[in-house]
């Protein structure tokens, strides 16, 4: 067997392909062994690990149920140890977890395999990263006789081919991908933290119902915010209707429908039609905030000036004058309570709902400061998201290059 395209210095020997069953034991609870949900405990000394307890490559132990000592000792084959690899076989199949350590004894519920290296020549950490990569599910798809896989059969695991270098190289590869995962987790946490900070500040920096001042505001601003209706400040407009026969699967100008709003377009119109409609009918200006009026009601996208067209009535915007700052309005939409939709089963945002919606408006200077502040937070979130995506893509490329 060949060696990978990228490997650590000092390792030159070819890798050997082995079946998973030849390098590891594969165990699971046989049926339910009479285990019933009545035996699940909210507290105890013995964890019962279920497929729903898997979380980002580990087990969410605070979420686990417990089980009595007799049930734990019933089957030694599924008693979990530190450095074991667990994998789900039912539900969301193929989720993989690595057990770094245990603070209490643990056993498995039905639907989970425990995989453990047979000897000192197999690194469980290496196995974890290989099983967590797409290779296993790709192999399972190849072995399937057709249709969607709803169960990970043990015979798939038994025959699954695993490329095996020396144990020293296995450890190097395993620890390397653990470090990559830690870096991805760090960026994910920074992203999530910034998202939560923004969410909390939105609640504090726009007045609550019945109030005319926010809890937090910038220095130098003390005046009350004026309550108005969006209809007092502008009107709802939309693009000209585009008929299906005017669209194509490819073309010059992307045409966004409600299903592709904020995503990739799947329809296009000709430039000739675009230029005609853009000159004759309402068209957004740079910075206008487009709103979805159906589907994901209230979803917003800022128009950046690209040549593109939007489905009438389903995608609209508020055409307003200089009394409203566009960035301020954009972030107001993050906390808006649309008129007539509170507690309603209505699945559409009508023009009247928008126009009758109340908005607290400060001075234009304060609007600009608030809008710019939340723009910076949004930019920071986007930066974290890009870094996260870049790291995930780097990991994906390395998985392909560092395994045979």
Automatic annotation (TrEMBL):
Q: Does the keyword DNA-binding apply?
A: yes
What's a single GO MF annotation on this record? DNA binding
UniProt keyword terms in alphabetical order? DNA-binding, Restriction system
Q: Which InterPro entries match?
A: Restrct_endonuc_typeI_TRD, Restrct_endonuc_typeI_TRD_sf, Type-I_RS_S_subunit
Segments forming domain Type I restriction modification DNA specificity: 13-190, 224-392
CDD domains recorded: RMtype1_S_LlaA17I_TRD2-CR2_like
Q: Work out whether the entry's keyword set contains DNA-binding.
A: yes
One of this protein's GO BP terms? Answer: DNA restriction-modification system
Record's family? Belongs to the type-I restriction system S methylase family.
Query: What protein am I looking at?
Result: Type I restriction modification DNA specificity domain-containing protein
- Organism equals bioreactor metagenome
